[in-house]
């Protein structure tokens, strides 16, 4: 019997372009291969679990201790919201709206009217570059910096001394109410920053105001059955708080790993769902290959300690939600397959091959906890246990 499952998402840790990558202009993207070439990359414990034994990865070992697979996304997207929803059992056939030319005039006019502030930018932009280019004007005028990316996001950047955090969050709530229907973006994101021009720094007070999932997820089915659902990192934001019994915001990967370790020391029956976002936000989007490699190495070191402390009835699942190859010209997410690594004293070390659907994770988790559901995907329970 499995009593606790720790599901850890290494945000953006793709393992090679998906078979339909050309639809997303991501042919050749491979986040794993990019960071693997760095002198700072060390992944002994991930290797032990079977990371390099996964189809097409290469460099595996004779006898991995985990079950492992390559997962191919079924949803039409390559962003955090779509990826996590699929991990939780929802396949999105239609992509969420994106705005490569900025948001429509009527949207911004209504947003500006309700907030009582003017708008700067309204273009797809790098998050660090946008505050460098518009931060000075924002401080002088008090106008909000609104921008987007290749993802389905409406982002609002503001200096914490000009727009206090709670006020920025309220502006985001206003935007969230406006952005619905055909303009229902996946996330409205608060992007606060501090400092003086040109040395602005984004802070950890970021907050995501997500679109509610269109139907029940793995979290809802578990929660309704009375099974604990603990979230670490931006999981609570991604699922708009639905189906989560206890939520924890994090300030960094390190903080996320510490909180996960705290849950490991507690006695509970259920799921601890973790997102480690620094891989994506600090290194993937900033094309920092060496930083990404160092981040994987730090996680891998922590992973070894976590595995040693696992109880006989524990299961560990490691995966990702999309790619973000730091070696390409693009700073956006990449359409990639993701790893699936499953470990526990009761888990059979087996090559699961290549599977269609991140949603296989949700079906497996619900099956293990004997939780009836109508989620998409294939349960791997009878193969791995």
Write the layout of secondary structure elements.
Layout: E1 4-10, H1 31-36, H2 44-49, E2 67-72, H3 80-87, H4 105-115, E3 119-124, H5 127-141, E4 144-148, E5 153-159, H6 165-178, E6 187-196, E7 199-202, E8 207-210, H7 218-224, E9 228-232, H8 235-238, E10 246-248, H9 253-264, E11 270-276, H10 278-284, H11 289-309, E12 314-319, E13 338-343, E14 351-356, H12 360-368, H13 381-384
Parallel strand pairs: 1-11, 1-12, 2-14, 3-4, 5-6, 9-10, 9-11
Antiparallel strand pairs: 2-13, 4-5, 6-7, 6-8, 12-13
What do these coordinates show?
This protein has 2 domains: 4-94 and 213-384, 3-Layer(aba) Sandwich (Alkaline Phosphatase, subunit A), CATH 3.40.720.10; 105-210, Phosphopentomutase (Alpha-Beta Plaits). The chain has an 8-stranded mixed β-sheet. The model has no long low-confidence stretch (mean pLDDT 97). The protein has helices at 31-36, 44-49, 80-87, 105-115, 127-141, 165-178, 218-224, 235-238, 253-264, 278-284, 289-309, 360-368, 381-384, and strands spanning 4-10, 67-72, 119-124, 144-148, 153-159, 187-196, 199-202, 207-210, 228-232, 246-248, 270-276, 314-319, 338-343, 351-356. The chain has 385 residues and is of the alpha/beta class.
